[in-house]
Every structure is written in C-alpha cells, then in structure tokens.
Amino acid sequence: MLDSAVTWLPSYTDVSELKDGVRVSEISREEVAHLAKLSRLALSDEELEQFASQIDKIVDSVSAVGKVDAEGVEPMSHPHSVDAPMREDKVIRLLNAEQALDQAPAREDDRFVVPQILGGE
Questions:
Q1: Which of 5, 84, 98, 103 could share a disulfide with 66, CB 3.0–4.6 Å?
Q2: CB neighbour class for 78 (10 Å; exposed up to 12, middle 13-18, buried from 19)
Q3: Under a CB-based contact definition with an 8 Å cutoff, are residues 66 and 21 in contact?
C-alpha cells in the first residue's frame, strides 16, 4: 500500500523502498538539490544536508498521521463546529446627504463629483 503522505516525492523515488506503507530510506541530498533547483533556491552543501534531514523527519511525521485509523470519521474543515453568531440587521441612519457631502471637495446636487475614468459624457 502506497502511503499518500509520501506521494509528493519526486517521481524518480523508488517506491520499492516502502515497507508496509512506510518509507525506510532517507531523503537524499540529491532530491533536496532537485527540489531546491525547481524552487529556484541556491543552497550550500551544508544547507542541503540540513534540509535533507529535516524533510526526512517531516515525511516520517506525516507518514505516521497517515496510519491513523479514520474509518467512520467524517471529513471536516475545522476541529470544532463553526457557528457564526447571527443578529438581526438594524438600519441605523448616521448621516443625511448634506452631512455626508459637507466635506466633499466637489459635489453636484446630492452626489460626489469624481474624475471620469470611463469614456463617454
């Protein structure tokens, strides 16, 4: 069984290295270099080694999550139910037209005058 947690690996990764759906080999320095090149990142040799080790640990952790028995568990977007508190809409008139237009740099009748941005008159 191919664990979906490891399917992000480059296509040249040998899936025969999986045992019971768990990866048994480490992420190679060459794989990290390939990912860095695709991401247009310049990494030193030291960084390649460091990231290979870190990515390997991350893949192992994600792989462990993939082993959890989720039979009968409904998919969800949040761990808790999300209920938006609702209230009744209330119309509150704060400004009348004169008050709203009082500080406008330009106005015509009961409207703001703005620069024309589209063709026409």
A1: 5
A2: exposed
A3: yes
Strand partners, 19: 22
Angle at 108 between CA 112 and CA 101, to 5 degrees: 45
Under 8 Å between Cβ of 25 and 12: no
The one-letter code for the residue type at 48 is: L
Q: Residue 39 has what pLDDT? A: 95
CA–CA dist 59, 65 (Å, integer)? 10
Cα distances from 77 to residues 62, 80, 81, 82, 103, in angstroms, run 18, 9, 9, 9, 46
pTM here is 0.41
Beta carbons within 10 angstroms of residue 51's beta carbon: 19
Instruction: Give the model confidence (pLDDT) of 27-50 as tens digits.
Output: 889 999 999 999 999 999 999 999
Q: What residue segments make up the domains of the chain, in order of their start?
A: 4-66
